Amino acid sequence: MWLKANSKELQVFLESATVYWEKNLPHPADDAVIVVEMFHQDIRVNLRNLVFANALRRLHPARMVVLTGVEDAWMRTLWSGFDVEVVRKVSDAFAGSEVIDVWEQVRRSTTPARDDETIVAYTDATYCRLAKLPRLPQGYRSRPDYQQRHAYATRLHDIYQELFQRNVVALVTSHVDYDQWGLASEAARQARVPIIHTQQTGCMKAYGLFPEHDSGTGTFREELTRQIGEVFETKVWTRREELRSTAELVAWRAKVNLGRPSWWRGGVTASVDLNNPAERARLRTHVVDRLGFDATKPIITVYNHAVSDALGTNRELFPSLADWFADTAAYAAEHPEAQWLFLDHPSQALYDSTSFFDSVAAQYKKVKYMAFRPSATLSKNALWSLTDLGVTVRGSVSNELPAYGIPVIQAGWSEWSSCGLSIVVDDQDAYWKTLEQSITAIRAGEELVTEEQVRRARLWLWLYRSGTDVVTPLVPQWEVWPADILLKTMRATFRHIEADADPMYDSVERMWTRREPMLTRTDFGA
Length: 526
Hints:
By secondary structure, this protein is an alpha/beta fold. It is built from 19 helices and twelve strands. The radius of gyration is 24 Å and the shape is globular.
């Protein structure tokens, strides 16, 4: 873990945390352990894991085993530094019993790669992410760096399989993708161990996959998508009238990006100021002129996802995110009855080393009804005014756009895909057919998004940003930063706030005992 903090501030934080957890955790009664992942360099990510784990330990006294370590490729691609000794100190302060440097064990092992289906899937996804590749390259299996990645995944698989033979109460993890996280989640599922997946936004947010609700027929994210949809339908949508005013407030806040996610945007380009169709129409005319489009034709905006991000982790219609984007561009070239705007991801450079977006754009630079733009060059005001139909795979635009009356087609699943917000298609044939039908409908003046979808989308924004965000002094808002401010805030909590009235403990107990797929601020079943 990398932590640029004043050494005195860190030490006082550690001392305060140590005393707090010594006084607020029961002693373990047996050999049970809770496994907590601390692979991320950001202490805010790890903090959420540690706090949730300790909330569980108040319900089920157990020792805490921390998984950590760093590997060279992860360091080169994503981390700017990582100090295992800092992880050990923080783990000790949160009453951890054991710290396992997983990558040290991987490096010591000589186990050769195995062609197990699960191992290969995580190898492929991790290889693409660390190399920032939209697809696996030609002849990749013979490349030394791929072979090393494959061997590493095999060793991780074996380490985790052995670990989960212990009496494990739960796995608490910030991620469920890629080799170091994903293979731990797979081992937990096979061992019938509950998995708590904390989120990097708000205060304390977490999803849970419990073995009694795990069909085993899909990935972790597929299972979660179905379960979230069930909660939304039975617990949230049924209360739409009583939640209406607060959902409207959250929709307004989302317009000005007061909380993640907002398609990874910040600053003035993230703000939406449009209040009615007349304002939208006036701005649309201006933006259409800027792009050289024909204002009388439908404008389809295709939002490229981060092309190497967590490939194959939910249900996808295409072999890769790159295939979806390139094939959609090829389809657009054959359909001049619409105007097509293709946007890159705002964080494209963090996910692509191959100039994939530019290479696709170059193929169609002479096609007047197609435009390719870096997304950051257009404000949300411009995008929202321009777009008659949004197209994406699993990005957050598929819940944001419908909230403001703009229809979206999804060529893949996201966590909200069972909530009835967007047009979710089942296969490639349905995708192309839905695109064609949607263009025809827009040209005929038909509305593609219903009032119910708008209300569902706004309720989703409420659920994500409010209903499932448990406010607790033990986990400051994500935006409490830099590190010294975070540590000072936490130190004040540990020294001055008692645990007996912390709402998080009740929320965690409710989620855990009822086996609910998400942590909630209030009791949805009441």
